[in-house]
Design brief:
single chain, about 250 residues, alpha/beta, TIM Barrel, eight-stranded parallel beta barrel, binds phosphoenolpyruvate
Length: about 250
Amino acid sequence: MRKKVIAGNWKMNNDIVQTTELINGLKSLIVSANAEVIVCPPYTSLATAQQLLVNSSIKLGAQDVSLYDNGAYTGEVSVSMLKSVGCSYVIVGHSERRQYHHETNEIINQKAKKVLAGGMLPIICVGETLEEREKNITDQVLTTQVKGVLAGLSAVDVERSIVAYEPVWAIGTGKTATKEQAEEAHKVIRNVITQLYSTAVSEKVVIQYGGSVKGDNAKELLSQPNIDGALVGGACLKADSFASIITAA
Ligand code: PEP
């Protein structure tokens, strides 16, 4: 039985004061959760969040990481830096990184490998654009992305990784995939992992859905057999709305 994993991607939101308020709000609302709960603040808030989360079951994640270990890479943050600030998870390949920073499946694959080698777990994002869905090529797109981002990963590493299915047209738009659309895409992703590895491996992989998840749609999405959690953007910025998604899980 796979555990539900709910992760909040704060994106470029929340200074230190707001971070403190949000984390304290979450701690008071999420006293005991059946799901694994992860918050992914911006880099500047990670140290504050880490201190506030001591003795909490809420885990800390980052939104991205550098491909490099150290040196002359202005503005970049390395795997060991994230590890030292208390991160257990790192989101890689979010569609906003693919779109605005031209990240390819190959780059995302390298980042996922670095995160795993550094003792953290990647949340690896895949998902089709609206144009691709309308052309009826969603399955091919997901297949190519999953093969690309997992290339060369061992079965053990894949089992520990999280894959987030995030249809680009549903991110931040208020348009959620229907539970049938989401379940279908999750099945495609799990089948690709079965082909690449085995049923035993694919049955262990947590596949999250992301795209306008809110308290009022979380339950029906999360009750689908292949949807093992949610990657949440907008609705994770308020403690009560994030907590309502966690309760639904
Ligand atoms: C996201 O950015 O990963 C996301 C799912 O955002 P939202 O929940 O706002 O659609």
